[in-house]
Amino acid sequence: MFYKIYTLLFSILFLSTASLFAQINFVAGQITDRTDTPMINANICQNNSMNCAYSDNVGAFHLILDDTLAQEIIVEKEGYFAQVIPVNEATVLPLMIQLEQDSTFEYPTLKGRYPSDRRPRRIRQGTWNLFMEGFRHDFSAFEDLVGSDNVALMNETVGVLGMEVQFIGQKRHFWGLNYGIIPNTDTVRNELYKLEFNITQWGLHYGYQLIDSKRFLFAPRAHLKWMRYRLLNFDLEYEIPFERYIIERDLDLRFNQFMGYIGGDFAVKFYPKNRQIQTHYWTLGVHAGYFVKLHNSPMVYTRRSYLTTDRRIDIDPFNIGIRFGFYY
Q1: CA–CA distance, 66 with 46 (Å, rounded to integer)
Q2: Does residue 271 sit in the same domain as residue 167?
Q3: What is the C-alpha separation between 140 and 150, in angstroms, rounded?
């Protein structure tokens, strides 16, 4: 009982503070049934949008409204009739909402399915992100094997350009896949021989939107990254002497390094003025964090063989980058 009163008082206090800022529209209240029993995990959304919140274990909720969307909320709970509530200057807060039970509702069995209009929405939002991040790697441990020219080329590359797709759940958890590349970097040695080096990056990530206000977004996250480095050496001429090929054999080495990553994103939100743009908002921000190698020595392959080695790629653990995102 004390927690219930405390939660409602906190919502009212937060509302009073928010009212000092004219640009923020805020609603708070409590959801119960006809017997005044708190409704846990009721879904409260700004109507016709994905701006949503859930009621807690005493039925209390709060939601920051987007002033570019409809100024009304819809309250839904499985097995109960939904309510649409307008929000305007006459609205008295906190809202005390009672949901009426739907006696015609049938809960699905293990083999059944939800009707299309009552299926719970597990994914609240999707995003596309473009990112550019920099980090340092050092292949000097392989210099006596592949040569100083190759190592100098491999050590020049310091960044990755990529894209990321992710999905955001109802409770601010998000997960997704990212892919990054560095365009081929190359150089010519002795005007006859070409050295080429490229990087691709695959990753899975999971995180939580710790701060998701109207203007700012902060989200800690963890990644599993797969870094693929490929080194190529080949002759520029199509027809070459057999003896020269034996001395300067083509080289095709693929270094694979798996890493963990822990960091966070901070971004500023921007809302499109043109409503024809199919995005809820877009963001511009930075991310930073630390890499941890999951194995000391890289896994090195040729076209046909796995090459064993105790040598290591030296990777700077600190990572920083910029990102641009579309939230739809």
Answers
A1: 8
A2: yes
A3: 10
Whether residue 106 lies inside any domain: the answer is no
Question: Are 321 and 287 a contacting pair, CB within 8 Å?
Answer: yes
Q: How far apart are CA 236 and CA 186, in angstroms?
A: 12
Distance of CA 279 to the CA centre of its chain: 16
pLDDT value at residue 67? 83
pLDDT of residue 50: 84
| Whether 65 contacts 1, CB under 8 Å | no
pLDDT tens readout for residues 267-305: 999 887 765 556 678 899 999 999 999 999 999 999 889
Would you give the DSSP letter of residue 49?
A: S
Same domain, 161 and 82: no
Predicted TM-score (pTM) of this structure: 0.61
Closest CA to 255 of 216, 215, 210, 201: 201
The range of the structural domain enclosing residue 93 comes to 2-98
DSSP state, 142?
A: G
